[in-house]
Amino acid sequence: MSILRIIFAIILPPLGVFLTIGIKPAFWLNILLTILGFIPGIIHAVWIIAKHDQ
To answer: Among 1, 7, 10, 31, which one is least packed by beta carbons within 10 Å?
Structure first.
């Protein structure tokens, strides 16, 4: 499942975060980062997914 979430994080970063943690402050931060720049949104999403899978 985490591979699928990482693929979603690359295509649409907030979706990957939403599938991992739901609607929490990290989700809203990821939306903001994605709006400000797509690459920071991807980095944050992959970080959240990796941190949650530990």
So the answer is: 1
∠ CA 24-25-27, rounded to 5° = 70
pTM: 0.89
Per-residue pLDDT of the chain (54 residues; tens, 9 = 90+): 788 989 989 999 999 999 999 999 999 999 999 999 999 999 999 999 999 987
Cα angle, residue 47 at apex, residues 46 and 51 outer, rounded to 5°: 120
Give the integer Cα–Cα distance in Å for 7 and 9. 5
Rg (CA), the chain: 9
Rounded CA-CA distance 25/40 in Å is 16
